[in-house]
Amino acid sequence: MSADAGWGTNLGTKAWNLDVQAYKKIAKLPQDIQDKFISDMAQNVHNKKVIENLTNKIINQNFKIFKVEEPAITWILPSVLKYLKENQNLKVQSPVISFEARQVKHSLGKTKIEKQKLTTNQFLQIYDVLNGNYNELFYDTKISAIIYVKMLTKGEIVDGRDCIAIPVNINSKRTDRPVNYIGTTKRINYDNILKDKRYIKIE
Description:
Elements: H1 17-26, H2 31-42, H3 45-60, E1 72-75, H4 78-87, E2 96-98, H5 102-108, H6 120-123, H7 126-130, E3 136-140, E4 145-151, E5 163-169, E6 180-182, E7 186-188, H8 190-195, E8 199-201
Parallel strand pairs: 2-6
Antiparallel strand pairs: 1-2, 3-4, 3-8, 4-5, 5-6, 5-7
């Protein structure tokens, strides 16, 4: 026996719950009103400060995570939601993008291969990149994720790895966690994205 979907997790305890509830209230409104609301919520600059504080806290405690924290960082932009629906037949549980504390360790910690690892300043660009400050956007058909690509400056390139890839894993099914999660962010070679058929360019 197991709990029905949505009852195995106390959604009210999650930091992203208020964003999810806000989306539910506007989900049946006309599309233009939804799009305006989603765009405004994506530009919540207070969320940028949240990720900065969480990142710095985890770095200062030597990447030890004592409590699982999952704040909302931003929302998927309307143009990307439209692509998912029309081209991948995916309807998200919500457009909310959540950030897990463990991703700081995965992206910046000692377990990450040095040439993939980001600097703290590069990692803290996540909010701005997800809100439109990216160079290109891809859909990863293997893991169902949007890949936000930000090109690096010449001085930031390591071993030919010339861009930052931020994966946002799309949740179209799990009602117990109705948000989309940032995956491990790392430095990669842009040409490898272009050569791999699993990636479809969105824009």
